[in-house]
Write a structure and sequence with these properties.
136 residues; mainly alpha; Hypothetical Protein Ta1238, Chain: A; two-stranded antiparallel sheet; 62% helix; elongated; ATP binding; EC 2.5.1.17; nucleotide-binding; ATP-binding; CblAdoTrfase-like_sf
Length: 136
């Protein structure tokens, strides 16, 4: 069974998948932590909505982000061991999803204040987290 603790002590470093270690305050650790938060927030969005199309989209985005998180948490050796990585196909699929949703909603003419309903508010939280992960 996989353990969630390493017993390697806390010397200010963390292991990447592949075996190398980096400082815990490294931007990579922040980036994959932020992506992990976004995956969890999208899970809340998924659980909040009953719209089957939205749930399918959210699940697809979560899966893609999970792969991204694995890439961020891997060193060069670990990357060669991953069964899946982000490629042009995944990027194109996300771009198509964005384009489809933008076509349905139309162009924004003003900023949107979150809170119209619970699902909408949760999606706005996810949006802000995605902006944060983009900054890493």
């Amino acid at each position: 069974m996989y353990r969630i603790y390493t017993r390697t002590g806390d010397k200010g470093t963390t292991a990447l998948y592949g075996g190398s270690r980096i400082e815990k305050d490294h931007i990579r650790v922040e980036a994959y932590g932020t992506v992990d938060e976004l995956i969890s927030q999208l899970g809340v969005c998924y659980a909040t909505t009953r719209d089957a199309g939205l749930r399918e989209s959210l699940h697809h985005i979560q899966q893609t982000l999970f792969v991204l998180g694995a890439e961020l948490a891997s060193d060069a050796r670990g990357l060669t061991r991953l069964s899946q990585t982000i490629g042009e196909e995944e990027i194109t699929a996300l771009e198509r999803l964005i384009d489809r949703n933008m076509a349905e909603s139309g162009p924004l003419k003003q900023f949107v204040i979150p809170g119209r309903n619970l699902a909408s508010a949760q999606l706005h939280v996810a949006r802000t987290q995605s902006v944060g992960s983009n900054a890493c």
